[in-house]
Amino acid sequence: MKYTSTRGTGQTCSGAEAIRSGIAGDGGLFVPVDLPNMDGWMLKGPLNYANLATEVLGRLLHDYTAQELLQC
Question: What pLDDT is attached to residue 3?
Answer without folding.
Answer: 96
